[in-house]
Amino acid sequence: MKKIFLFVIILLFSSQIYAKENTDSSSGTESKSESTLPQFFKSFTECNYIFDWGVSYAQLTRIELMNDRSNFVRENMMIGAYFTAETSELGFFDLLFSLSIYYPFYQAFNGMEQKAKNLFNYAVDTYFGTIVTYDKLDYVILNFTLGMHYMYQLTDEYHMNYLGIGGSIGIDFPISKSWTIVETNFFSYDNPNLGANKKIQPFDSAYQFHINLGVRYSGKVLNKYSYIK
After folding, report:
1. Torsion angle of alpha carbons 160, 214, 108, 161, nearest 10°?
2. In 173-212, which positions are buried (b, 16+ CB within 10 angstroms) versus exposed (e)?
3. Which residues, including other chains, have CB under 8 Å from residue 166's CB and lie 6 or more apart?
């Protein structure tokens, strides 16, 4: 797991190295005062940002491996809302940050529904990673991401903290020059034993699947092709 985290961190910042090398090759026209600004920060200040938001569905699974019987499997189905911010034309990779808030409407233990004791259970999910866009199909744009995932979840028993690696495949449908419908399929594999609960009831693994459906509006980063001319 540590090797995976290190790989993702290196990948997250490779875009900045790429952007710095490209800009350094054309920096002869810059003034002396401008060149003193660290290139890492100039990349963020000069690029554009795009935002999308909408509804989200999440399915969370926690597993306890058992030696003398079938494994304990706990599941949560949750509904909520999400917000995502992305850079545009930062470098070979762009960066994104996503924030989601969920309310669990269904939970099960080994396939059997369990009634929640606390009606105010919730979860807060974050994701930070790199994004690569494939737009050669013109009217359907594909997005691929890889990054670090963290979720906090309040359950009937514990305050759960999940940390792991995640990735997603997204599809953008350019409705007009400024408006886009966004659909994203996200998967993560997490360590669920952060915090004090690992001493009480440790879990062997956890994984999640999210489906986001939302819209994006941008007045600066326009769609090259769109359904509405």
Report:
1. -10
2. bbeebebbbbebebebbbbbbeeebeeeeebebbbbebeb
3. 127, 129, 145, 146, 147, 148, 149, 186, 187, 188, 189, 208
Q: What is the mean pLDDT of residues 21-50?
A: 57
Q: How far is CA 221 from CA 46, 76, 159, 173, 174, in A?
A: 13, 37, 40, 15, 12
pLDDT digit string, tens, across residues 85-129: 999 887 778 899 999 999 999 999 888 988 888 889 999 999 999
pTM for this structure?
Answer: 0.79
Distances from the Cα of 89 to the Cα of 48, 59, 153, angstroms:
7, 33, 34
Helix (H) or strand (E) run with residue 200 in it:
helix 197-200
Is 197 or 20 the better-scoring residue by pLDDT? 197
Q: Helix crossing, 39-46 with 2-24: angle to 10°? A: 80
44 backbone dihedrals φ, ψ, rounded to 5°? -75, -35
Q: Report the amino acid identity of residue 101.
A: I
Q: Is the dihedral of CA 103, 109, 112, 118 positive or negative?
A: negative
**What's the token pair of residue 125?**
């999910």
Q: How large a percentage of the chain has pLDDT more than 70?
A: 79
Query: For residue 140, what pLDDT band results from cuts at 50, 70 and 90?
Result: very high
For 12, which DSSP code?
H
| DSSP letter (8 states) at residue 225 | S
Instruction: Name the phi and psi angles at 136, rounded to 5.
Output: -75, -10
